[in-house]
Each structure stands twice: as C-alpha cells, then as structure tokens.
Amino acid sequence: MRHNKKHGMKLGTDASHTKAMKKSLTCSLLANDRIKTLEPRAKAIRTDVDRVITWAKKGDLHSRRLAIAKVGDKEVVREVFERAAQGMWADRNGGYTRIMKLGRRKGDNAEVVIIELVTEPVQPKQKKADTVKTVEAAPAAEAPAEEPAAEEAPAEETPAE
C-alpha cells in the first residue's frame, strides 16, 4: 500500500527523481545564492531552503546533521552555517528566499524564474495610525528636550565653585 507516500509536489517525475532534483537544486541555490529554474521547481525547493537556513541559525550539531542530509554537501552546509553564525539572517524570521519571474521559455512556454537568497535587513512595517501619532508627537517631544538642557547648565556651575 502507498499510504502517506506523497510529500509535496511531484514535478512530473517519480518520487526518487523528485527527491534527487530537489536536493540538487537546494544545494545549488545555497552554494550560488541565485539560480534560474522553472517556477514549480522553485516553489518546491523554497521550503527546503528555508528549513536549512533555520537549522543554520540554530547552529547545533543535530541541526547540522539534518542540513547535511537535506542538502547532501558538507562544504555547502558549512558555508551556510558560517553565514548564519555571522548574523546574515539574524533579524529575519523566515522568508529567506525571493522568486522573481523572468517570463516564459520559448520552446515549451514554461514559466522561468530566478530564485535567490534574501540578504537585505528586514524593514518593520508601520501602521497608518502609528504614523499619524508619530507626526503629532514629534513637536511635543522637541519642546521638553530644550528644557533639560537649560537645567543642566546651572548644575555644571555649582561644582566649579
């Protein structure tokens, strides 16, 4: 029986070929930071890459062994763990990959994409209500800042006497 044998997308091949293809694409992406592939393949490896980077951020021995099993190359895993230890993805909680569409391939009209690792720091989202309050609170915050400066000046003269 084949109960619970399907894990994710099949990508038009049998399970062993899908597994080998995903391992190879994941290794290539982590080694080169950017690869050009088809859209379904990019979407299929996105979860594997995110999982490996999460293990790299954790950084323990068990996580390293899991990553080696997922990627298949010890040197690539070592490089990823070193980059994670240096804080490359320290401020990011997931979403380590970006998929950009390039268009369709001429021969078979397949959607071609570039999948790459995201290296930019995270920009926190600001709510519209917070922005309005910040603009209104900014002039009020400047006025008290001038008063303590006037209070500090006499305090400096007292120890000099």
Q: How widely separated are the two ends? A: 94 Å
Q: Quick one: CATH class of the domain at 15-117? A: Alpha Beta
- The amount of beta strand, in percent, is 5-15%
Tell the overall outline: globular
Order of helices and strands: HEHHHEEH
Helical amount? 55-70%
Computed Rg: 26 Å
Biggest sheet descriptor: 3 strands, antiparallel
CATH superfamily of the domain at 15-117: Ribosomal protein L17
Overall average pLDDT: 84
Say what the CATH topology of the domain at 15-117 is.
50s Ribosomal Protein L17, Chain: A
How does CATH name the architecture of the domain at 15-117? Alpha-Beta Complex
Low-confidence stretches: none
In DSSP terms, counting alpha (H) and pi (I) runs of 4 or more, how many helices?
5
| Structural class label | alpha+beta
